[in-house]
Every structure is written in structure tokens, then in C-alpha cells.
Amino acid sequence: MRTPVFxxxxxxxxAKRLATSIDSVLAQHYKSFKLVIVDNGSVDNxxxxxxxxxxxxPRVAAIYRDKNYGFTGGVNPGLELAIKEGATYAAxxxxxxxxxxxxxxxxxxxxxxxxxxxxxxxxxxxxxGKTIDSTADQYTIWGIPFPRGRDEVASARYxxxxxxxxxxxxxxxxxxxxxxxxxxxxxxxFAYYEDIDIxxxxxxxxxxxxxxxxxxxxxxxxxxxxxLARRKTNGRVANTFTTKQYMKNLPYILVKDVPAPLxxxxxxxxxxxxxxxxxxxxxxxxxxxxxxxxxxxxxxLPKKLMERRRIQGSRxxxxxxIWSLLIHDLPPNAYKLKRLRALxxxxxxxxxx
Length: 353
Hints:
Layout: E1 5-11, H1 15-26, E2 33-40, H2 46-56, E3 60-65, H3 70-84, E4 89-92, E5 97-99, H4 103-113, E6 117-126, E7 132-134, E8 137-139, E9 145-147, E10 162-163, E11 173-175, H5 176-182, H6 194-204, E12 208-219, E13 231-233, E14 236-238, H7 240-257, H8 260-281, H9 287-313, H10 319-325, H11 335-348
Parallel strand pairs: 1-2, 1-4, 2-3, 6-12
Antiparallel strand pairs: 4-11, 5-12, 6-7, 6-11, 8-9, 10-12, 13-14
């Protein structure tokens, strides 16, 4: 019998929280799913925890990888298995997240009722349940994405279902027939913004994305990335890993996904923000990460240009439609860029971006 839904948990040394995450998935009121845990070469006791659940519940399966292939490489094998076994939907789920018991049901119900939609995303709260991690992803005319509602107090403001630009990869649901058309996560991203890329590709291919507020997840943000490359500078811990991914992946999205008429409008703003972030990374102790990220982008640029040709060649929506999806402002937390923009407006007498 076909399993309609695959839930995929990528794991890297997540033994401390993995069991809680698995338990929350197995406790779902919606029962017709298979849970696939993709272990990215963990060296803690994750394997023992996974084997215990496989013995206890026939819905649980595992894929073991020989090393860390990032979030993308930790999810794609599960997506491939979902396609191979004829699943209808696939839902990546972070190993440091806890799902409300109706998380899965609300996403399945929405996609069942809305065949034009390829992705459904949920309310992701911080672990305390009081503040927001994400209520979907936005992409700005500055070429910078951001999670909608991040760090705001949870309130009725985000209680309405709505069309949205993109979905967080940490707890969203993808229509498998869409994935067969547009492809899986781009593994060159490794981690960060791979969900923006796949959402952008879905939109270009004519699939809509919706925020489903009644579907809720609680997330202890950044636990996996916190294990990765860090170093101390002037007594502070600098996350060079995140900086490298930022500098590499943000221009990937521009090169692959932004239609040419929009690219000429976004690129000048992006280059300003990107350059300022690059410069700032050095006094903050993240310069090595920034340099590595830029270098990796240029190494992969020819490949991304080839991917762009395929993605843009199969685009089914207009430039105006994509432009309407974007936020025509800076991200809410881009305080320094906002101050710089305000200074520019005063000097030039302008009042709009």
C-alpha cells in the first residue's frame, strides 16, 4: 500500500534532541506517513537512538550517510525515496523541532484541497512557544530573504492562511509531483537558503506556496549549525560557517532564479548589501568564512549559469507576477542598511526606495 506522506528528518550529531523530535512526529493524529531519518555521518549515539525507533515502529526507516552532506544532502535522499515509493507529499522536519499533533494533518488537508499549490508551510515558534521563528519566507527587492515574523511575539497577526513567497525547509510540505518537475534541493547550497531557492523555482514553474497557520511546530533554532565551524576572535565566537554559506548561497539565488528584467533592478541593491556584509565580516572575525564563500560562488558560477538557462527556459509565470511576490523593502532587521538608505534619501531628496 502506498504511503501518502514521507516525513524526513536530517540528523547530524543530534542525539540530545532527536528522540523528542521523532516522538512528536510519531504522535501525529494523521497516521498515514513514513518517517525517514537521514543520518549525516553522526559520531554521537544517534545511530542507537534511530535503531531503537526502527525496532519499535514499522513506519520508521533510516538512511545512513558516510559524512556530513549538509541540510540539502540530509534531506535529498529522503526526497528521492519518497519519489521512488510513489508518495504524494514529502515534509522535511528539523531534528531540533517538536511538532504539534496536528502539524501534518493541516498541511495534508491544505494540499489535498488546493491542487494548484506545490508547497505548504506552517507556523514555526521558538521553543518557548511565545515568540516566532518563522511564518514563511520572504524575498526582497534587495536580493535578501528573511523569515516572516522572526522574533515577534506570537499573536493573531499571523492567524490567516495566505499565499506567500516561500516556505521554511525546517517543517514544510512539498508536493512530490512538483519535485519531480523542478528538482530537489540544490546540494551546492549545503545549508541555508536552499529553501528559498526551491520555493523560487516552484513559483517560476507556476506552483503556488501557502502559509497554513494552524499547522504548528516548535523549534530550538540553530542547534545543528552551532556545532559547525566557529572560532574565537577578540574573546568572541565568530560563526564562520554561517558567513561562508551566506556569501556563497545568496548570489546563487540571483544567478539561478531571478528573471533578467528583475535582475537589473535587484542587482545594484544586492551588490551594495553584499559588499557591506563582506567588509563587516573582517572586524567581526568572520573574514575567512566570507572569503571562502565568495570563492566557492565563483567556482560554481558556470554551473549555476547552466542551471539558470534550464530554470528560466521552463518558466511559466510573468515577471510582473514574480515582482508582486517580493517585499519592496529591506528585511526588518537590516538596521544599518536602513540607516544608510535614509542618509542617501536625505542627501538626494528622495522619499522612496
